[in-house]
Every structure is written in structure tokens, then in C-alpha cells.
Amino acid sequence: xxxxxxxxxxxxxxxxxxxxxxxxxxxxxxxxxxxxxxxxxxxxxxxxxxxxxxxxxxxxxxxxxxxxxxxxxxxxxxxxxxxxxxxxxxxxxxxxxxxxxxxxxxxxxxxxxxxxxxxxxxxxxxxxxxxxxxxxxxxxxxxxxxxxxxxxxxxxxxxxxxxxxx
Length: 166
Description:
ten-stranded mixed beta sheet, 0% helix, mainly beta
């Protein structure tokens, strides 16, 4: 069976103003995907994969440092962050998985409210808007399907929302 996680980019980074009235504007790619490939439910090993993504940002006026906060929303199938699940496209079977930042099995990547933690990165921009500068998010998305889940064969998927705030 194949497991595929589509991370939808619904959350958009708006702008924020600091005391100096510098506005930070960022956009996300249209989608980020994490493909787990084939899952062997008899294996005692977890299935671990990772992917990276970047955002494009600009700042008016440029030059000052801002903190970018990246949050991962809940699973559309479980409604939770600590209990994320992918659903089989052919039936109602669910497969548990989790997303982390910094390492496999490390800190759960969430929204900081429902569950898990947000990830933060300090950035300095030298580009005036509307030009944007691609910024590689400093942590990969580390995905893990837990071992030995009794699930039927098929294609499993889930959709999450990434939100970026300055």
C-alpha cells in the first residue's frame, strides 16, 4: 500500500508591523508533499521520510530582522495534531502518522494551541516589496508512519494546513 501526505498551503502569511512600521510579506508554494512510498505493515520498523520547503518574503523597508513562525494544522481525518491519521481512499481504514521538526521522533510539529509546537526562524531581508527572496525553512518536515499497523492495502492520504506568520 502507498501512503501519501498532501500538505495544503491554505494559511497565508499576511503582514505584520513592528514599532518601526516595517511590514513583512511572505508567500508559500502552492503545495508541499510528503510521499511515504510503500508501507509494510509487518515490519517492526517505522517508515520515516522527510521533505523541505521554502517561502518567499520581502520587507518594507528592508534590512531588519523578523521572526518567521511556521505552524502545521491538524489532520483532516482525525481532527487532531497528536493523533494525525491518513485515510484509505477505498475504505474507512485509518493509518496513524506524525510530523516533526529537527529530527524523526523529535518535537511534534503543530500549531502550539491544539497540540505540538510551532517552529521559528529569524530572517533578515534586504529586498523591498514587491520583489521577493526565497527563504529555505531551516527545518525539514520529518514524517513517520508508526510500525505494524493492521491496515488494508490501498492509497492513504491526509491534508494539512501550513500557516506562516511574522
